[in-house]
């Protein structure tokens, strides 16, 4: 068949190049696994299987990668089939077509590549978690003013902030692992959509390709893309969360805040302004992450309202976008990890601003409730009145100001020395008494850091186990194919 030149130039050439880049290795692996299964099931003879195996062995991946689309074959599948025909003849090569279709081959290739994307992203997130945990461990005592609604709110520690980010990333890994479990099922054997009348063994090919098992319904094995959307959604949730963190970090790098300084190797200067020290690594992370998030939305848009069946919308044209989305997701995470490894916080500046704007007034109100058994609403009003009076008459001693504020609200004045008020309203005291599980007290953040390190070790063991399982499947496939 000769295809229209416009179809060739606008579709087939691009698809051929994309397939070589993304799916050549999975396709070859599928050929070997299917060949082993056909022979072990007695569907093809030993001599034909041996000839096919030798033909597969003779294929040069380097030559294929260097090849240009020549219109003689529709796609990479037919290009490889032509190589097999040239090596062992049409009669023998054609026997590898039994009990399979490009449909189930494609869906299997997509899942094989998708699981690699997921594992790579999990690995990058684990590296980021380690960098953040190391930073949190160094800053359990580093006090700063947390913001709500972009305004100073209450004192906390850098460790407490970072642990919130770390826990978010822990949940991201949970979501990615769930997506991996859904992805790592083999559609091979579903054929076009209804399976086959041959006595195939789908468990064999599943095992030889490193899957956890075959998919179920053969129709759904070809038609569904929920496994893909689940992985995209998990990555998108992660990107949205990290984008918010990156925005904070960029704000902290401004001269106006001056909280954070990145390593010299991760900033850039100006061609005209000698003083500039631009935190470009974070800007790139934000921009690339936003691009990846947009690609994720495009993936969902591309597949929604398409027929529940075999359709190109979910195949050749979509897969490069999926690859790009996960590549950019990984780049975002890796850039942020690099930035955090060399990050330095201005501890003194953070502490100096921690009590500005009345950030410790909540503890003053809490203290009055604990010590004088008054309702919190009343204590809140006293604290608010105290702040207002301090702003109106800053020269008045704090003890006198609190006496007046409490007298206004209670009818009787509460007696505190200036030193006692300073202690109650100290940012460090504020943090130390907040020993709530998950709170900022250094003893609690130490416990949380230890727990997060244990979870990091478990997640690393999971990742190592998944990668080793795929590698072991590669070895089994090679050994059993070479035995033919």
Beta-strand content estimate:
under 5%
Gyration radius, rounded: 31 Å
- Biggest sheet character: 2 strands, antiparallel
**Could you state the oligomeric state of the chains shown?**
single chain
State the strand order across the main sheet. 1-2
In CATH, the topology of the largest domain is named Fumarase C, Chain A, domain 2
CATH architectural arrangement of the largest domain: Up-down Bundle
Task: Describe this structure as you would to a colleague.
With 484 residues, this protein is mainly alpha-helical. The protein has three domains: 5-97, Fumarase/aspartase (N-terminal domain) (Fumarase C, Chain B, domain 1, Orthogonal Bundle), CATH 1.10.275.10; 103-353 and 448-479, Fumarase C, Chain A, domain 2 (Up-down Bundle); 361-425. It contains 19 helices and four strands. It has helices at residues 5-40, 46-57, 61-66, 76-88, 90-93, 102-138, 158-183, 202-208, 218-223, 226-253, 280-303, 319-341, 347-353, 361-372, 376-392, 398-410, 418-424, 427-432, 442-482; strands at residues 143-148, 151-157, 260-261, 344-345. The strands form two sheets. Strands 1-2 form a two-stranded antiparallel ribbon. A two-stranded antiparallel sheet has the order 3-4. A hairpin with a 2-residue loop joins strand 1 (143-148) and strand 2. Helix 1 packs across helix 2 and helix 2 (46-57) packs across helix 4. The chain is elongated, with a radius of gyration of 31 Å. The two termini are 35 Å apart.
